């Protein structure tokens, strides 16, 4: 199993549709794998004390998935796809969010709280070898 995100960093405008691409190759044919997208917020900013470091901290090399523990972040399931059925996490119900194609996450219009890391995880009972997840970073910019 090999999971990749072709665009590891996406910058989107507020209220514009966002598509995070995730691709996977399964080594052994079988039932369709389970695709899960999970959201992790940026690390809290040490100076302002707020819960989001913002794009400045991310682009300045200050934030990667390893720089602060998950307990300091907001972590939630965005959506899970099994076969043709997509189940949304509680926070995303009522929004235009879905998993299209094999594993592409469509967020509909971007909202302020959407900036962060999105982890695409593919689980296959037929293929347990390889790398089963990849990370996409999303920065949502406001209108100027």
TrEMBL record:
GO terms for cellular component: membrane. Residues 16-136 form the Ig-like domain. Transmembrane segments: none annotated. This is LSR protein. It comes from Tachuris rubrigastra.
